[in-house]
Structures are given as C-alpha cells and as structure tokens.
Amino acid sequence: MFDKLFEAQQKAGEVKKRLDGITVSGTAEDGKITVTANGNKVIQSINIDEDFLKTADKEELEELLQVAVNKALVQAENVSQSEMAALTKDMFGGLGNMFGK
C-alpha cells in the first residue's frame, strides 16, 4: 500500500516537472498582448506591443491584459488536466483486471 502511495507521489512529481517545461500562451487584440505561462499555471512573461501601448488607455490595457492572462491560464489548465488524466489512467488503468475485465 505504501509502495503505491510513494509511487503516486513520485509520478506526481514527474508530472509537475513536465508541466514546468510546457509553455502555453494567451493573446488579446490580435496578439498586441501576449501572456506566456507554464503548464503549472505560473506566468512566465507578458509582452505588450509598443505601438499599442502608446495609444491604449488604462482601462483598455487592463481589460485586454486580463483577457490574455485568462486565456493563458485556461490553456495551462487544459494541459495540466490532460497530464493528470494520463497519470491517473497509467496508475489505475489496470484496476479492471482486478474485477475480471
């Protein structure tokens, strides 16, 4: 039992490392704002087009930044869920054999 728990912790650590290496991004206003995050939902960078920055007002900039951040975080969540689903399937996929299936 403890072996399985230790194995699960190890595999979860491996998934976290893989997610650290996965990059996702969210954009707003046709790429005028780009937010990059990793698969663990940590924002890595924010890029704002200089010409857009010169002409945008504060409210517009805040709104579009929020859109880009949320898009990046949704992408990161999708990647994270996919990785965790693969881990769960890998770990528990053999359970069907326990019940004669």
Order of helices and strands: HEEEHHH
Query: Per the principal axes of the C-alpha atoms, what is the gross shape?
Result: rod-shaped
- Helical residue percent? 55-70%
User: Strands of the largest sheet, in order across it?
Assistant: 1-2-3
The tally of beta strands, per DSSP, is 3
CATH class of the domain at 17-84: Alpha Beta
Quote the average pLDDT: 89
Strand content: 15-25%
Q: What's the CATH architecture name of the domain at 17-84? A: 2-Layer Sandwich
Alpha-beta content class: alpha+beta
> How many DSSP H or I helices?
4
The description of the largest β-sheet is: 3 strands, antiparallel
Q: What would you report as the Rg, rounded to the nearest angstrom? A: 19 Å
Low-confidence stretches: none
Distance between the termini: 22 Å
The CATH topology label of the domain at 17-84 is Ybab, Chain: A
Instruction: Name the CATH homologous superfamily of the domain at 17-84.
Output: Nucleoid-associated protein YbaB-like domain
